[in-house]
UniProtKB/TrEMBL annotation:
Belongs to the YjdM family. This is Alkylphosphonate utilization protein. Residues 45-114 form the Protein YjdM C-terminal domain. It comes from the Bacteria. SUPFAM superfamilies: Prokaryotic SH3-related domain, Zinc beta-ribbon. Residues 3-32 form the Protein YjdM N-terminal domain. It comes from Malaciobacter halophilus.
Amino acid sequence: MEQLPNCPKCNSEYTYEDGSLLVCPECAHEWSLNDTQEDEDILVVKDANGTLLNDGDDVTVIKDLKVKGSSSGIKVGTKIKGIRLVEGNDGHNIDCKVPGVGAIKLKQEFVKKQ
């Protein structure tokens, strides 16, 4: 019997075929076998609460953050609109413009989705 790939969303091993689609019974995600290679390239970024973030989401800062080269930092509760997700090798996966600070990269564990 052919070994089916794990679910790309929840990594469940209990996937099954339904016609030309693969289905995960645990999270109800459906995808075609051709999509499996494309899903591996998707950047998955989750906020401090574990909520999945997408490009264009609005987030709120959950901790006072110091900014290098600036006397002021980013305060708790600062709302940031229209984030962009980037591949950051040091954990800074969120590219955004913070009011009063400017363009900056943030770590995902310091924000929550609005």
